[in-house]
Amino acid sequence: MSDRTDRQSDGPRAAPRARTPAQALFRRLFVINGLVFTVGTLVLALSPATVSSPVLLAEVPVLTVGLALIVAANALLLRASLAPLDALAALMQRVDLLRSGDRLTDSGNGDLTHLIDTFNAMLDRLEAERSAASAYALAAQEGERQRIARELHDEIGQSLTVVLLGLKRAADRAPDDLREELHTVQETVRASLDEVRQVARRLRPGVLEDLGLQSALSALSSDFSAVSGVPVTRRVDPGLPALSGDVELVLYRIAQESLTNVARHAHATRVELSLTAGAGHLTLRITDDGRGGALQEGAGIRGMRERALLIGARLTLASAPGGGTDVRLVIPDAAERS
Ligand SMILES: Nc1ncnc2c1ncn2[C@@H]1O[C@H](COP(=O)(O)OP(=O)(O)O)[C@@H](O)[C@H]1O
Ligand SMILES: [Mg+2]
């Protein structure tokens, strides 16, 4: 962002030189061609060589060499001048707004500077807009999750509790042959109530608000191990800096999606989850020893990237086939309290 304002404030100083890309290219081609023709003409004028009419056979090689030299010089100069266009096209093809900061540096090719600057500024703008749109969408998604979690807990949870109490009262007064059956129904309702509470907890990480990140990550790991049967080694630095609510939520959701992916895809035998503070940054890592090979990024991984971008963090995913998967989120200090 600051890049962009810098570039914009450069504007007035650069203004007298600024040409549209078409003008800049025209000028460059005109200058190069003019230069080559001038040198060719000077060489012709100053050298003792003459051309007869009609051309003598002995003069043909001289003319051919002269022409070849002019064409070659022209081609060399034009190629060097137009090279940045290839770099620009390559950047257009590879650019991914979820991996921010990929920019073209102007290698002193004066006339194309304006084109490169304009393109870089467009990327800045698109990245900022993309980031704002994801922030909005993610906030809406979190809001919706909270609403569903509340309704599950307060409405369905309450109704099931009432049903459970009614069943208990009925079972107490029922004849022996019916009591057994009512107990079975009671157990089924109790299991459903537990499931509803679990779903509500996954939707809204209440522990995050109530007990903080450490306990939330610990509950997440235990839930994961209980469901998947894969043990998690957890290492959370005791002296972590105070983090903003947004950063904590991003950390929690990325750990949650990574563990879900391990359970669904990895066939792992163990998982390591660590959150450590290093020099100037905070790192979350989720490593498994499963089958690896996560090459196709689906909605889950793209969602993680969007969340990372939201807090100015960098997400990398290493997943060699057969070599397990390593998800790493690095949050620079400046973003921690954002
Ligand atoms: N820990 C992992 N181990 C092996 N493969 C993985 C792992 N995480 C993700 N993948 C692969 O990457 C793909 C994309 O993951 P993701 O974007 O989360 O989408 P989804 O989980 O909905 O399939 C998965 O379909 C899976 O093939
Ligand atoms: Mg997934």
From TrEMBL:
<feature type="transmembrane region" description="Helical">
    <location>
        <begin position="55"/>
        <end position="78"/>
    </location>
</feature>
<protein>
    <recommendedName>
        <fullName>histidine kinase</fullName>
        <ecNumber>2.7.13.3</ecNumber>
    </recommendedName>
</protein>
<dbReference type="GO" id="GO:0046983">
    <property type="term" value="F:protein dimerization activity"/>
</dbReference>
<dbReference type="GO" id="GO:0016020">
    <property type="term" value="C:membrane"/>
</dbReference>
<keyword id="KW-0472">Membrane</keyword>
<keyword id="KW-0418">Kinase</keyword>
<dbReference type="GO" id="GO:0005524">
    <property type="term" value="F:ATP binding"/>
</dbReference>
<keyword id="KW-0808">Transferase</keyword>
<dbReference type="InterPro" id="IPR050482">
    <property type="entry name" value="Sensor_HK_TwoCompSys"/>
</dbReference>
<keyword id="KW-0067">ATP-binding</keyword>
<dbReference type="InterPro" id="IPR003660">
    <property type="entry name" value="HAMP_dom"/>
</dbReference>
<feature type="domain" description="HAMP">
    <location>
        <begin position="79"/>
        <end position="131"/>
    </location>
</feature>
<dbReference type="InterPro" id="IPR011712">
    <property type="entry name" value="Sig_transdc_His_kin_sub3_dim/P"/>
</dbReference>
<keyword id="KW-1133">Transmembrane helix</keyword>
<dbReference type="InterPro" id="IPR036890">
    <property type="entry name" value="HATPase_C_sf"/>
</dbReference>
<dbReference type="Pfam" id="PF00672">
    <property type="entry name" value="HAMP"/>
</dbReference>
<dbReference type="GO" id="GO:0000155">
    <property type="term" value="F:phosphorelay sensor kinase activity"/>
</dbReference>
<feature type="transmembrane region" description="Helical">
    <location>
        <begin position="29"/>
        <end position="49"/>
    </location>
</feature>
<dbReference type="Pfam" id="PF07730">
    <property type="entry name" value="HisKA_3"/>
</dbReference>
<keyword id="KW-0902">Two-component regulatory system</keyword>
<keyword id="KW-0597">Phosphoprotein</keyword>
<dbReference type="Pfam" id="PF02518">
    <property type="entry name" value="HATPase_c"/>
</dbReference>
<keyword id="KW-0812">Transmembrane</keyword>
<dbReference type="InterPro" id="IPR003594">
    <property type="entry name" value="HATPase_dom"/>
</dbReference>
<keyword id="KW-0547">Nucleotide-binding</keyword>
